[in-house]
Amino acid sequence: MLIALGAGAGSQSDNPVKQGVSSSQSSKVEIIEVTPSALFQSYQDNEIKADNTYKNRYVKMTGRIDDIGKDILDNMYVTLVASDFFGIQVYFNDEDANAVSNLNKGATITVVCKVEGLMANVLCKDAALM
């Protein structure tokens, strides 16, 4: 399922959900609805095909939080369960610190984020909680 919303860098988000632009406006950004496990499995099946389908595009996912933390560069992330060992690592911008700090492991969330590709986990950036 695809949803079209308007678009809008650095710490400022390009995420169409954060832009608050209605779908009736001329600039459209496609949001692909996918489950975390289906996105991860696409990368396991064929990374090149998955990149062609998802990389640099926004996806909407609902999933269970496996981990909440910061990487070595102090960037906030939430990992959504996608397989037995790996998941979808969803990165948030600094302005989302309050919302992310209120999340709990095991909770189910819905996010819209931009797929960056596979690095053990599938990485997504510029996330917005729904």
Condensed summary:
With 130 residues, this protein is an alpha+beta fold. The protein has helices spanning 16-19, 36-45, 47-54, 97-101; strands at 2-5, 29-33, 58-70, 76-81, 87-91, 108-119, 121-129.
Termini gap: 17 Å
> Which structural class fits the helix and strand makeup?
alpha+beta
Q: Which fold name corresponds to the CATH topology?
A: OB fold (Dihydrolipoamide Acetyltransferase, E2P)
Provide the low-confidence segments as ranges: 1-10, 21-26
The number of helices is: 4
Query: Average pLDDT value?
Result: 87
CATH class: Mainly Beta
Rg estimate, integer Å: 14 Å
Helices and strands, in N-to-C order? EHEHHEEEHEE
Helix content: 10-25%
* Annotated CATH homologous superfamily: Nucleic acid-binding proteins
Strand arrangement across the biggest beta sheet? 3-4-5-7-6
Question: Secondary structure elements and their pairing?
Answer:
Layout: E1 2-5, H1 16-19, E2 29-33, H2 36-45, H3 47-54, E3 58-70, E4 76-81, E5 87-91, H4 97-101, E6 108-119, E7 121-129
Helix pairs in contact: 2-3
Features:
130 residues; alpha+beta; OB fold (Dihydrolipoamide Acetyltransferase, E2P); globular; disordered N terminus
